[in-house]
Specification:
The complex is a heterodimer. By secondary structure, chain A is mostly beta strands. Chain A contains no helices and 12 strands. Classes of the chains: A mainly beta, B mainly beta. Chains A and B meet through strand 5, strand 6 and strand 11 of A and strand 6, strand 10 and strand 11 of B.
Chain lengths: 115, 116
């Protein structure tokens, strides 16, 4: 069975601090995709990144970076120099490799950035 | 820009009513999904569809049904609404590509349903 665990329910930091959101997954598949989504107060989930299980290279996009470690089944997300606009609920998710696969979501981490 | 539109942002219904939640996408996507989102539980899949007139049960289908008569429209039906179906409902769509190429979903803004 597939499962995604986001142990941090809520995180609150002061603006400009760095913050890391943890994600641990379980799957029996040898090939799979991992995702991060952001849900701002408006409610619509916004796609942030998709990572292929073959590719363990870390990825950086501006202030966002992702650390994928197959050995520990983790796909952590770090925001550097956080800003108030980063306040949102963040979901980690997992999918199999077939075009018919559905995405399994974690329970989400609510991130609050205080001015 | 790709769009998934859910017809209502907020909805209040009475226990026992039949409720229709509508979702329309303009991207010609084959796959469509209905999730419900509850605090501490994340998103749970109710039903999904890979093609017109085709449907598959997700993880929590009880109390729900779906309809997909046209490619762009995927409706979620609560046959007899109950208070434990009070939740945020999210519709999503994705492109059906070849094997090994799963794209992320595009989500609608959600419908917050309250059953009283």
């Amino acid at each position: 069975a597939q499962k995604v665990t986001q142990a941090q329910t809520e995180i609150s930091v002061v603006e400009k601090e760095d913050v890391t959101l943890d994600c641990v997954y379980e799957t029996r598949d040898t090939t799979y995709y991992l995702f991060w989504y952001k849900q701002p107060p408006s409610g619509e989930l916004v796609f942030l990144i998709r990572r292929n299980s073959f590719d363990e290279q870390n990825e950086i996009s501006g202030r966002y970076s992702w650390n994928f470690q197959k050995s520990t089944s983790s796909f952590n997300f770090t925001i550097t120099a956080s800003q108030v606009v980063d306040s949102a609920v963040y979901f980690c998710a997992l999918s199999g490799y077939s075009s018919a696969s559905k995405i399994i979501f974690g329970s989400g981490t609510r991130l609050s950035i205080r001015p | 820009d790709v769009k998934v539109t859910q017809s209502s942002r907020y909805l209040v219904k009475r226990t026992g009513e039949k409720v229709f939640l509508e979702c329309v996408q303009d991207m010609d996507h084959e796959n469509m999904f209905w999730y419900r989102q509850d605090p501490g539980l994340g998103l749970r899949l109710i039903y999904f569809s890979y093609d017109v007139k085709m449907k598959e049960k997700g993880d929590i289908p009880e109390g729900y049904s779906v309809s997909r008569e046209k490619k762009e429209r995927f409706s979620l039906i609560l046959e007899s609404a109950s208070t434990n179906q009070t939740s945020m409902y999210l519709c999503a769509s994705s492109l059906l590509t070849g094997p090994g190429d799963v794209y992320g979903y595009t989500f609608g803004s959600g419908t917050r349903l309250t059953v009283v």
